[in-house]
Amino acid sequence: QVRLVESGGDLVQPGGSLRLSCVAFGINFKIATMNWYRQAPGKQRELVAAVTTDDNTNYVDSVKGRFTISRDNVKRTVYLQMNSLKPEDTAVYYCNASFTRLNYWGQGTQVTVSS
Length: 115
Known about the structure:
Layout: E1 3-7, E2 11-12, E3 18-25, E4 33-39, E5 46-51, E6 57-59, E7 67-72, E8 77-82, E9 91-98, E10 103-105, E11 109-113
Parallel strand pairs: 2-11
Antiparallel strand pairs: 1-3, 3-8, 4-5, 4-9, 5-6, 7-8, 9-10, 9-11
């Protein structure tokens, strides 16, 4: 059974930091491109960060220099380190495992940035 289990979402003040984690079960983690998406209320889901099988990373412009995506193939886990958080980062964050023909999603974890 395929499961992606996110954790780490919380309420944090502007300027604060959080680290999201996503553990993958039931997939060949090593050959998946791992992604973090987010969806804010009333907005479309957007790709925030991606890490390929050879550790190449990409980020949406709004988080460059603040967020870092990384992966641990032994632990089957992808991380999103989020620093200098802003209120506009408030969203549900989703982990995604992408293969050539398949995509798998986690259930999401809420990140709220507010004073």
